[in-house]
Each structure stands twice: as C-alpha cells, then as structure tokens.
Design brief:
The structure is a homodimer of 566-residue chains. Chain A is α/β, with parallel strands linked by helices and 566 residues long. The first copy, chain A, has 16 helices and 32 strands. In chain A, the strands form nine sheets. Chain A has a five-stranded parallel beta sheet.
C-alpha cells in the first residue's frame, strides 16, 4: 500500500511538522512518529506563560488554534500518522535501517524499519553538578510535566521566596511568571550582565532596570556554590560565594544542550557546537537520516559559521524543509541569524545577527548606532521609547546586527532588519524602505530608518561619534575634554551626567557663544537622544573646530550613574 | 562667505528636511526656506489626532521630540537657515535663477537668487464643484488652520451630525476623530467600497464592519449632489441621489492633487499623474531644480511605473536625498511600493505593492493567499486575529503585494513584506526568515511565514484553492458542487455559511466516511481559517479524488452573509 516508509523520532515541534508535511505532500507515505513523553506537538515556549497564569490550562499548549488537542488519536484520524508516545527510541541500526524502541509502560520492545529517518530529538536542560541540585523544590523547565510541577509548588509557596539560577531567556521569562504569581524572586547570574549572549551591555542594562523596577532582586556576577535543604530534603536556600538566598523554589536554567545520544551512538557526525551536523538540505552524514530542531546545529547565514541556537521557530521551519526533502523537493534551509526576543514585564529586548562584542572579536570594521526615540510621533500620548542599536560593516554598509529594547514597538523594527539581513541588505537599502506610515504606527521617519541614516552619516564621516562606554573610559582615565551638554537648562535640571567636564550650552545659544569654546580641545557633544548632539558637532565643525564628536544615544542611553530628579 | 546658495520652497516636510540636511552636510551653505503658511515643519498627518483629542495642543504637532517648537527663530539659531514664512513664492525665473516672492502681511516683493532650488510645494485638497461647498461648516483638512477650525466647530456641535464626503484614508481617520468627539457620523463614498485604492474588497470589508460596530453610518455607492445650508449660510444637510443626511459639520476629503503651479509656470515637465517629473536623483527637467514630497510624482519600484502616492514618510526621505544631491553626493531614491496603513478604531488595515485588482489589470500570472490567524499563540489571552492577503508571481514566487487587516499586530507583518519587496524577495525567501519568536510576539510559525508557505503550496500545485469570491460566483451561477465544511458540529452551530451545497463532515471523520463523497463531483473544502480545509483537500486527493479545492481563508474570511449565533 505504501511506497515510502518514514520514521520520525521526537514529537514536539520539528518532528510533527516534518511528519505532517510528508503526509500532505505524499498521502500514501507510511509515517511513524515516536515520542518519549506523553504529550505531542506542544508549545514548549508557552510554558512560562502557563506558570505565570496567563495560560490557564496546560492543555491549551497542545491544542490547534481552533481548540483541537493534538493527541495520538488526532494524528491518526486527521493526519494518518502512526504515533507511539511514551516510547523511547533506543538504537538506530543504520545498516538495516531499523529503529529499536521501548514502550515505557509495558516494557515492550518495538522495531520500526524506515526508508528515511528524521531525528528531532530536541535538547535537554543542563543540570550543573551543584551540591543540592536534587533537593525537592529544585526544578528545571524542559517538559510540560516540569511546568506543572513548578506551578503546583508556586501555588503552595505563594508570597515566599524563589531563586532563579541563570539570567538567560528562560530564566528571565520564568522570573516574570514567578513575580506574577506573587513570589519574591532573586535571579543569580554568574556573568557580569543578564542575557549576555543576547545583547551588548548598554542594551541589556535595561532588562536589569526593568527587573529591579518590578521588585526582583539581582545577584549579578555571583556563582552558586551550593543549594541547601531542610531535614525533609526540601530546598531552603541557595548559597553563592557572597550571599545566601532563602528559597522555597529554585529554577535552574543555565542553558540547554542538544540531545544527540542516539545520533552519536549510530555514528552520525556531531559538530563542535555539540549538535548534529547537517548539510543545507538538513541531511546528516547518513543520506537517509535528517535532523532538525534543537538537536541539530545551524549555520549562521551571515557568517556561514556553525552555531547552536535552539528556537521553536527554527524547529518548525526545519520540519517543513525536511518534509520537502524526504518527498524529493530539494529544498534548502538557508540558516539562521541568531534572532531572539524576550519580554521582560513591559520591556522588550531583541537582537538579530552579530552583537558588537562579536564584531570586535571577529576584527570586523564596523560602525554602531545607538538611537533612542519614541516608537510613534511624540505627540501621541501612547508613544513609548525604544532604543535601537544597529551595527553595519564599514564602508560597505552591510547590516551585521541589530538590537532593540524599550517599552514601545521593538519587535517590528527588529523583524524589518531580519528581512533586510536575509537579503544581505545594507543601511543604504534600509534608508529608503517604503515602510507603512501613519501616526499610530510610526514616526514619519521610522526609528529604524533614522538608525540607518545615522549609520550612513558615520560611514561617510559626516557624523563623528563615540559610544557611552568610550566616553566613560576617557573620564576614568582622567582625560581632559569638554563634555558638551546642548540641552536646555530645564532638561539639565531633570536629568544630567555629573562630571566636571560637563558644560551646559543649549544648542540655540551655541552659534552665539561659540567663542566660549576652545578650538584646540576635544569636544564631545550630547543631548537627550543625540540628535542635537549631532547638530552641535556639525555646527562646530562648520566653524572650524576639528576635534568634535557626539555621544551616541545621549543622556537617555548613558548606562552609568546619572542624576535624575526624583 | 558662502559658496552655495540654496532656496527651498515649502516648509512642511520635504523642504525643511532638505534644508537641514544641506546645512549639516555643508555648514557654509546659504539656505533660505520660503513657506506660505505661518507654521513650519509640522506633522500634517497628526491633524486627525488633534481633532480626536488625542493630541491636546496643536503646538505639539510642530515640536521636536524634546518639545522645541520649530519656528523661524529655531531654524535660524539652531540650523542657520533663513526662514521666510507667510511668504508666497510667485514665480521662478530659471534663466536668471531667481525666485520672486511676496510677503503676505506687508505686500513686500522679495527676490531670492539660487544656485540650486528645491520645490517642496506639497499638495492641495481637491474641492469638487458641489453646490454648497462654500457654506459655513464645510471643511477640508489641509493645514493646521483647517484642523483648528474643524475642532472648534466640533466642540460647538458636540453630539450633532457630521458628514464625511469620501471614504479614503483621511476621511476614515477623521471619522474616528469625530466619533471620539461625540458626533454622529455618516461617511459617503461614491465607489462600491471604502478605501478602494488601498485594498481588495475582502480586506476593506473589515473597515466597513469596524465603522458600523462603532456606530458610523455608511452611504456606500452614493454620489453627493448638493450640500444644503440654512438662512445664515451654515451647512444643514448633504444630499445624495438616494438620501439626505443632516449635517452640522462636513468634511470633504475626496483626495489631494500635487501643487505644481510654480513648476508648470516656469516650464518644468509635469507627468501624467499630475505631479512634477523627476529623475532618480529627484532632479526635475531643470538640473538645478529638485522636487520632492507631495508635489512630485514617484516611481513604483516594483513595476517601474510612475505613480502619485503622497506620503509624509516619502517626503522626509526625499528631503534627505535632495539634500545629499545638492551637496554632490549622488544619492538615488529607489522609488516607493505604494505602502499605506490606516487605523480604524481598533482595526488596522495596510497594504504594500499591488492589489489583486491591479495584478489582474496587468495580466500578471499570480497566486493569492488569504490567511486569517491569531497574531500570537492562540493560548495567550491577548492574541488577536489578523488576516493576511499575500500576492506572488507564479511561478517565480516574487512577492507582488500584501494586505493585512485585523485587531492584532498587522503593521509588523506588512513591514516585513515591504523589506522583502525592497530586495525583490520571493515567498521562498520569506518562508525562512529568522524572525524574532517568543510567544508574546508571534506564533512559532509567524503569520507571514505561514502565508508564504501557503503561497508556495499554491505555486507548486500542492494546495489547490479558490477565493471566497470565486465560490460565491459558482453559487450564484447555480453550479453543483459539494461545499465541504470540515469543522466540528460545535463550530458549525456558532457560525456557518448557509447554502444547500454545504455538507458538514468534520476532518476527524473524513477518512472514515470518505465513501459518502462522490468522486466525480467538484468538492470545495473549508474550515474556520482554511488549514483543515487544505488538509481535507490533500486527504481527498490521496484517496483518488481529482476535483478538490479548498476555499481561501475559511468561514472567517467569507465576506458575504453568514449565520452567526447571537
């Protein structure tokens, strides 16, 4: 009856997508899906929102948009896919093309022969060898079962103490969920910044502030030594070298690693990232075995380097591509840009492509832009600030990366850059995108277009600037320069950088009082967001000053201590 | 002192932008800006939001984001630009390179010589020769003065009747503003749909519904014959061939036309659209005269045709490009895509590129996708529906246009397509964009990626579909076919298309009851949003049915009468 036997191992995202795509392209295909858990095709990324209470019932995470639960029966009657859940694939016999599996509940041994095999075995949460990690109340968040356990414990200890070990994406999302459930939350991060893999420090600092604004306690740069328990083996505290944090529940979220045991055992190549190696058709080193989703490594389409960036979105896309290729469609997967986004209470933080740190490490000649401005015309009462950091190759203008944070519409600007980068777009291209404009949606010059304009100014040496970090370094080294604040006295009253080098001279007075400024001294101009700072630089240069810059992002983006009127 | 004399005519968007850019690139340039109105550099697009009350003070429309008013003094002391407001440019003497102008308040004649001249004379609102158009209370919305007059009258007639003549972008925005000010509003549109230039009927129908939901009365397909007044020449009613609408205030917004008199009088070429002809450097047929913003015509970067699409966003971008070119930077303006967006109460409607109607008129071989789905995972309580219509060339996959509407995040998806189209992107490219994914921002497979997937299915003949309009036509022609609703009985109870051809057979029962369906008859399957409809099509084809399609967008996108449970 069937001409093509396919076995798919892994039933969360990439696996079911591949299986369903195969059945749609070839309804006669004989497709079997093996999943070790109870539950199939669920939104793992939705789990923090179940813990927070925003999703009321965990079943909703497994339903189609119209409320149909994707269980074994659904896969059989709707998609004609044979599902074996609570079944562990134990071994792949590549020679005979057989998968050996074990049914968990009965101990029954099963064999599945295949023409093509899909590995979608996902990732597992890293469990570091911290003393006390096995105490009751210490959790990871990997499966829906984990999420249910966490939620149960949170209800029991409402108002008590939670400790999150690891300030990455999942740690931050669960922090918010715990706060919404009324817990006192402490985040312990061993690096010197939160979300270090996601963003540069002047962007991720806003996450730190937003967490503090919401009452979260932060222990940055601290390493956990031990988790302590009470007499009945219930967790009671987390101990770092500096402090002891009482804890009624602990989440360990220091990262995930690809689940590659099956692949490794049958001799498939594993890459330097730890993920399964695939080609651009998502084929492993065995031409009849494909791999996608969290178990496989990826190609960065910008740099062509291999990277490991597990994402539910990528897993779904790859499932489709694998389905295509198993049905002989020769579809290439172009790779990823390392895009990631996170909501932190009311704040968004997102990035795509390379961070500045990565550009520096790669010795790329680049310019960076840091531009804060309202996400729609400032005259609309619901306009909210977003800060864009855009990085472009110098002088080609090729966009290398973008980071956006703020309380306003950040995701749109980021995704526009994702699209641009998918076509090797430059800031010169971006400047003239005909983006959708009406006041409820954006300023007439969209924030991302302004960012591209500023990048162009820098590449063409029209706008000479330095970053807040560079200014800070100059200040700390005791260097003499004029730190020229060109805002109004009223603005200065409200918020200012306090340093003896700061001189207040409003832009409107600059031409008139230009003789007060020494031509031989370095001048770094700034304002609230850097537009007037740039204007000041151009005015001074026009008057023969030769050592003038402006500071990116103005006082709004100054991430260090500053005076703010209470 | 100066090496380069530039005169800019027009002080709203393109003009001030060009002037400021020139001064930044060349601080020694001698720049003069002539504006006939009192006010400079204001957000004309913000006026409806001033009328609605969202912007409290019209001065906010003229301020920089940090609250500085952009008046003549500001332009002089900050930007060193000589501003002549309330000054009308009357004649351009191209031979001697002189602009002759008149100071309105004093009657003084002025002459400005130039090396380069910028025409940014904007557009004017069309005033059709309707009897009664000069009555008191009949307004156009072109200047801030107009906006103030309208707002004053609205305050006076709160709770009374307003009539909007013209259901285009501005008409719709002001409709919302009037409703927010407590008026009873009627919109009269002579075409058979609102926003006809913006979107295809199955998209713009949602605007019609949203207006009605907000108590707006619609008179679609009606032409105004006369505006009636009372004894003191105050407007009292608007009369169409069918009806008479009482009116205490009327807004006439049937369109704008480029302001080209100056250009025409001095012999510059005017195009078939009525706008000033420019080359890709935005130079007119005189190499020392540039034109941009609403007075100039544009190139559609997709089709290379000339179009007239006045937009504040374009005006600003063009001002910058003109500034570059006057400073010898040789910057090209690549053209526009005809992007537009409008907020209608809680609904967004937006489009870029070509509509289906335009594709049909151009005899392009295309596929269209109509896909409704929540803008983030359905399990999040704030997920809201958006409907995407994506149009791609067949079989190249090149994206030709996109329309998005709905209560959810529509602008982001549209702008992603704008970016794609700016690079001649295809749906095959779009399918694998590494867009930012986390549940608060999008489903794992973003709506726009799903739309690209569906387009690919159609191009590869995997998904065979027809539009609601095609089905409606078949029904009306009395054609026999099975209109297969594959939803659950519960869903059918809530909402359904009522026709004798409709047969309910839930997807989960389809394989089991497949023999109930005749193989020789045409079958058009559908569900709520068309995912299960597509699945049904593939299942039936797998079982040897040869004449099966699904209907785009499912019952959600059925724009005709349907049963909805109260």
């Amino acid at each position: 009856m069937s001409d093509h036997k396919i076995v798919v191992i892994g039933g969360v995202a990439c696996g079911p997508k591949a299986a369903a795509r195969i059945k749609r392209l070839n309804p006669k295909a004989d497709v079997t899906l093996i999943e070790k858990g109870e539950i199939l095709s669920y939104s793992g990324c939705g789990m923090p929102f179940y813990i927070s209470g925003e999703v009321h019932d965990h079943n909703e995470l497994m339903q189609t948009p119209v409320g149909v639960v994707r269980d074994s029966h659904f896969f059989k009657v709707v998609k004609d896919i044979n599902v074996y859940n609570r079944t562990v694939a134990e071994k792949i016999d590549r020679q005979n093309k057989i998968v050996h599996a074990l049914k968990i509940d009965t101990g029954e041994k099963l064999e599945f022969s295949y023409d093509d095999l899909v590995l979608a075995t996902g990732s597992e949460t890293v469990r570091p060898p911290i003393p006390g990690i096995d105490l009751k109340g210490v959790n990871i968040l990997s499966t829906i079962e984990d999420a249910r356990k966490i939620k149960e414990r949170v209800s029991k200890f409402k108002g008590k103490n939670a400790v999150i070990i690891g300030g990455g994406l999942i740690g931050i999302e669960v922090t918010e969920a715990f706060v919404k459930q009324g817990m006192n939350v402490t985040v312990i991060e061993k690096e010197d910044q939160l979300l270090k893999n996601l963003a540069d420090p002047e962007i991720s600092i806003h996450v730190r502030r937003e967490l503090m604004r919401n009452g979260v306690k932060l222990a940055i740069g601290q390493t956990v030594k031990e988790i302590k328990g009470d007499d009945s083996s219930e967790v009671s505290a987390v101990v770092t070298e500096q402090e002891t944090f009482p804890a009624d529940i602990v989440l360990v979220s220091i990262g995930v690693k690809p689940n590659v045991k099956l692949a490794q055992d049958c001799g498939l190549e594993i890459g330097i990232t730890g993920g399964i190696v695939t080609d651009e058709y998502l084929r492993t080193t065995d031409k009849n075995i494909y791999a996608g989703g969290d178990c496989a490594e990826n190609k960065n389409r910008l740099t062509n380097e291999v990277i490991y960036t597990p994402m539910g979105s990528t897993a779904n896309k790859q499932g489709r591509v694998i389905g295509d290729n198993i049905c002989r469609r020769n579809t290439k997967f172009p790779g990823v840009l390392g895009t990631a986004i996170c909501k932190v209470f009311d704040l968004t933080i997102a990035r795509t492509g390379l961070t500045e740190k990565q550009c520096r490490e790669k010795d790329i000649n680049y310019v960076t832009v840091l531009t804060p401005s309202p996400d729609k015309p400032h005259f609309l009462p619901d306009a909210k600030l977003i800060i864009i950091k855009l990085i472009a190759e110098n002088p080609s203008g090729k966009i290398l990366g973008c980071q956006v944070t703020g309380y306003g519409e950040a995701a749109k600007r980021l995704d526009i850059v994702v699209a641009a980068m998918s076509h090797n777009g430059t800031v010169f291209d971006l400047e003239n995108y005909d983006l959708a404009y009406a006041p409820p949606y954006s300023p007439a010059m969209d924030n991302i277009i302004v960012a591209a304009n500023i990048a162009e100014n820098k590449i063409t040496n029209t706008g000479m600037s330095c970053t807040p970090a560079q200014v800070k370094e100059q200040i700390e080294s005791g260097k003499d320069f004029i730190f020229l604040d060109v805002r109004s006295p009223q603005e200065y009253e409200m918020m200012r950088i306090e340093d003896e080098r700061v001189k207040l001279l409003p832009l409107g007075k600059l031409r008139e009082k230009i003789n007060e400024l020494p031509k031989e001294k370095e001048i770094i101009a700034f304002c609230k967001i850097s537009l007037r700072g740039y204007e000041a630089q151009r005015i001074l240069e026009g008057e023969g000053f030769t050592n003038v810059k402006y500071m990116d992002g103005g006082v709004v983006c100054w991430p260090y201590e500053k005076y703010v009127k209470a």
